[in-house]
Amino acid sequence: MRRPLPLSAVSLALPLLLILLLLPSAADAHNITKILAKHPEFSTFNHYLSLTHLAGEINRRLTITVLALDNSAMSALLDKHFSVGTIKNVLSLHVLVDYYGAKKLHQLSKGTTLSSTLFQATGSATGTSGYVNITNLKGGKVGFASEDNGGDLNSFYVKSVMELPYNISILQISKIITSADAEAPTAAPLSLNLTDILPKQGCKAFYDLLVAAGAAETYQSNIDGGLTVFCPTDAALNAFLPKYKNLTAAHKLSLLLYHGIPIYLSQQMLKSNNGVVNTLATDGGAKYDFTIQTDGEDVKVKTKVVTAMVTATLIDSEPLVVYEIDKVLQPRELFKAVPNSGDEEAPAPKTAAKKKSKAPSPSASDGEEDEADSPIGSDESDGEPADQKSDKDAAFGSDGRRSIAVMMLSLWLGVLLV
């Protein structure tokens, strides 16, 4: 018979398990865009973090410090009429790849330090020009300067905007950190024209639909700010065309816009972005969202109606990426949701099919989709309750994580007390 562990062992194990329970996961990672959206004085800075795709890089980092510029300071930068590429270099100099809270700024060892930045990490910086000098001055004043400007501390700490030790810190500084290297002219980005790209990458059938429905212009206008496109294969489109033809013009447009996300998501970002995302069709009360779910190396795009598999990356040239998928994405705003939808579409029960025979679906689709997927009349809602559980399971939210942690805690305590 096993001897029970002493109470001291239990008391030591319990806090450790509670810590594991409360630890943040990748699903709780910071989002710089959402954080700054709460502070309108940084709206211009926030906009350019998204436009230059620095926001995505910041969000991927586990430890980061953002030196934020208010709208007035950003005006001084924009008055120089730099290209977007140069603005990206300048702003990347304002993102430190280490954690600095307000307290740490005033407790620097020897009163000064050098911190590497995202500009240094890009490899575009020459020598140490991608490092920022941080100096604690007399009277509690803290100055910032790039390493290549001769030590001229031209920008100063204003306030702490948000701190989440030791994950992300957002500190406001008074002026742009100037750097001749960062402000050097950059080559203009290659022109990305969907008319040239999609037909040549195996998406001609999909692109023809975009043009016919008037959606191509919306896709093209979103490229500069970042665009992710999910292109169904020709076989998937051909099987879906009977249903597509029965949609109204407005619904056709919504369906096609539903296949685009207004941000750039590389393959790595896509695999780490498990959860619900908005689309080009998202507008006010019409959600038009879907869930991205990773299963090992496989990436699935799940709506309430179908689950599509990402089968290939057709082009990845930031700020545009196009993925091939094996099914047409059908939003629940336009099609009947499949009850308790899992990884695959649920076939309609035979008894249900008999009941529905009195009101057949507007079109057939060669048997690939069942009657539960037929178009519905409203652009707002299909009238059925949302399957909230599916969202939580797909995104593996904090509630599911806590449930598992509680279960592990119970099992562990049971072992300790036997």
CATH H-level homologous superfamily name of one domain: FAS1 domain
Q: Separation of termini?
A: 9 Å
Classify the secondary structure makeup into a structural class. Answer: alpha+beta
Query: Looking at CATH, which topology of one domain would you report?
Result: FAS1 domain
Strand residues, percent: 15-25%
Q: Residue ranges: pLDDT <50 for 5 or more in a row?
A: 7-28, 341-374, 377-403
The gyration radius over C-alpha positions equals: 26 Å
* Number of helical segments with 4 or more residues: 17
Per CATH, the class of one domain reads Mainly Beta
Helical proportion, percent range: 25-40%
Q: Can you offer a commentary on this structure?
A:
By secondary structure, the chain is an alpha+beta fold. Among the domains are: 142 residues, Roll (FAS1 domain), CATH 2.30.180; 132 residues, FAS1 domain. 35% of the residues lie in helices and 19% in strands. The protein has 17 helices and 14 strands. The strands form 2 sheets. Strands 2-1-7-6-5-4-3 form a 7-stranded mixed beta sheet. It has a 7-stranded mixed beta sheet with strand order 9-8-14-13-12-11-10. Helix 1 packs antiparallel against helix 17 and helix 9 runs antiparallel to helix 10. The radius of gyration is 26 Å and the shape is elongated. It starts with 6 loop residues before the first helix and ends with a helix.
